[in-house]
Every structure is written in structure tokens, then in C-alpha cells.
Amino acid sequence: MKKVTLDKKQIIKSIKNTLLVILGTFIIALGTELFILPASLVTGGLAGIAVCFKYGEANIDSEFVITVATVLLFFLGLIFLGWRFSAKTLVSTITYPISLYLIKWIVAELDFLLIFNSPSLSGHTPIMVLLSSLFGGVLVGAGCATTFLGGGSSGGVDIVAFILCKYIKKLKSSQGIFIMDSAIVIAGFLFNPEHDFALCLEGVLSAFVAAIVIDKVFIGNSKMFVANIITDKCDEITDDIINKIDRTTTLFSVIGGYTKNDKKMIMVSFSMNEYNELVRIVYQRDRSAFMTISRAHEIKGEGFEPLGDSNEGS
Q1: Angle between helices 126-149 and 197-214 (to 10 degrees)
Q2: b/e for 205-223, b at 16 or more Cβ within 10 A?
Q3: Strand 250-255 and strand 262-271: pairing?
Q4: If DSSP codes are grouped into helix, strand and coil, which group holds residue 179?
Q5: Count of CB atoms situated within 10 Å of the CB of 143
Q6: Neighbours of 58 (CB within 10 A)
Q7: What is the pTM of this model?
Q8: What backbone torsions phi and psi does residue 91 show, to the nearest 5 degrees?
Q9: Are the beta carbons of 270 and 263 closer than 8 angstroms?
């Protein structure tokens, strides 16, 4: 009877997570279709690539470019990163292109949704582009955060970054993503016939706003975490944590409550920027590891905020 109840809970959780990923992906598409693409903002990611293809005589349909790139990158991830990773991006891979075309059709039917047609702010005026960068960033950030809350991944060019990290051991995932997005922004500036630097900066602003929203929605106010990792690969994971994210660890001897087997547990404190890298380290070293991650209200000491003067308050 207990097993059946547990299965039902797992099914409900899976459905909830899938719906969160679908909702998050739709919100990303909404921000992209209503603001990013109409304003020709190169913010990085697939939308940035699509804007680059709009320049010149080709003027290829942005939604088509995003659809092709999404599918190609999914299979690229499947080949180089495996099916476990690709499974997290599958829902977004299907939902994102469909959402883009659906929103495009709705906008065509309801013309007032296209803000660039506003009588008071007609055309690509500076204020219109600025508003698009802000609102587009908010929606894309909220969508990404919702997708993460559902345990999914938006995939896209991040897949290329993760592949680079896989084969370049010293490269962190955050660095790989930054490199990819920077390359797309630079390409957008070079491919733009007018080389509009202001438009380039507004694309960067939009990406920055998206990052802030992800921080607030997905991470919350705290930027510090504590992870407890029970693993049979204690030495390897500890070495990677020290060498790759420059954090030290505390090791505990623990006993499994069910198996009664002796185990080792790693405790490590880390920042938000190191979150994905830590998960990647554990995943690569021991896929059967058990890891809990909790948000820390405050961490003080070496490598974090200083403890302060010991005479304070005396």
C-alpha cells in the first residue's frame, strides 16, 4: 500500500515538473517573440543567432532558424552528453518552436499585441527598443527560472558550452556559457549592416535583466549553498571540488540507515556561480551519489565573508 502511495506522489511530481517546464518554455518564447525578435536584440542564445540570420539579403525567418538550431543542438547533446542530459531538454526542444509559431500566429491575428505598431511609439524608436530589452529580459528570465524549477533545461547554445566543458576539463560551465553568448553578441554587432553599438548594448542589458530575474526566482535572495554528498567516489569528487571550483570540503564517516554500510559524506559550502559546476562534478564522478543542496542564510569565514573583529559587540 505504501509503495502505491509513493508511486502516485512520484507521478504527480513528474506531471507538475513537466507542466513547469512547458510553462517556462512558453514564457521564454513569449519574451522572444514579442520583444527580442521584433527589436532585433542580440542577447545571446538561439534568439541572438536568429537575429544574425535576419541581417543581409537572406533575411531568413527567425522562427525557422530557431527550430532548426533547437533540433540540431538537441541531437548534438544526445551524441556528446548522453540521453540523461538530453532527456532534461526534450520537453523544451518540442515546446519552444511550437510556442514561437503559436505566439507569432496570435500576434498576426491580434495586431495590437505587437508593440512596435503602437500609434504613440511607432517604429524602432530608442525608447521602444529599450522597453523591449527590459520586458524581453524579464520574460526570458522568468521562463528560464520556471523551467529550472521544473527540473528541466532550456538547452539551446548552452549544450555547446557543456560539450566544451566536457572536453576542456579546466573550463567551467559558467565560463563556457559566457563564451558562447559573447561570441553571438559580437557576431550580431559584426553582421549588423549599421554596426549599431547601442543596439548591441541593449541586447546585453536584456541578458543582464534575464540573469537577475533567474537569480531572484530560482535562487531566491540567498546566494550561498551547502551541499551534503554521500558517495563511493569521495576522493575523486573532493579533488575536483578543490581544483575546479576552488572550495575545500569537510568529510564525515556515516552509516546507511537501511544497508548499515559505512559511507563517506562530503560537506561543501559554495556560491550560486558554482552551483552548476558542482552538480556536473558529482554527476561525472558518481551517478549513484546521493546529494542534498540547501540554501544557507549566511556563511562567514575564509573564502566567504570575513568573521569580523572578535571584539565586536563586547
Answers
A1: 30
A2: bbbebbeebbeebbbeeee
A3: antiparallel
A4: helix
A5: 28
A6: 7
A7: 0.69
A8: -60, -45
A9: no
Bridge-based pairing state of the strands 250-255 and 224-231: unpaired
- Rg of the chain on CA atoms, in Å: 22
Exposed/middle/buried for 154, CB within 10 Å: 0-12, 13-18, 19+? buried
Section 224-244 average pLDDT: 91
Residues in contact with 15: Cβ distance below 8 Å, sequence separation at least 6, in sequence order:
none
Q: Which residue has the cell 561525472?
A: 284
- The SS3 assignment for 234 reads helix
pLDDT computed for residue 96 by the predictor: 93
Type of residue found at 173: S
Tell me the three cell numbers of residue 126: 530608442
> Over the stretch 121-180, which tens digit does the pLDDT of each residue have?
445 677 888 888 899 989 998 998 888 878 777 778 888 888 888 888 777 776 777 788
Cell of 40: 532585433
Q: What is the pLDDT of residues 18-65, one digit of tens each?
A: 899 899 999 999 999 988 888 888 888 888 888 888 766 666 788 999
Q: Which of 276, 246, 300, 61 is nearest to 158 (CA)?
A: 276
**How far apart are alpha carbons 253 and 192 in whole angstroms?**
59
User: Residues for the chain: how many in total?
Assistant: 314
Neighbours of 288 (CB within 10 A): 8
Cell numbers found for residue 161: 558550452
CA-to-CA distance for 248 and 243, rounded, in angstroms?
Answer: 9
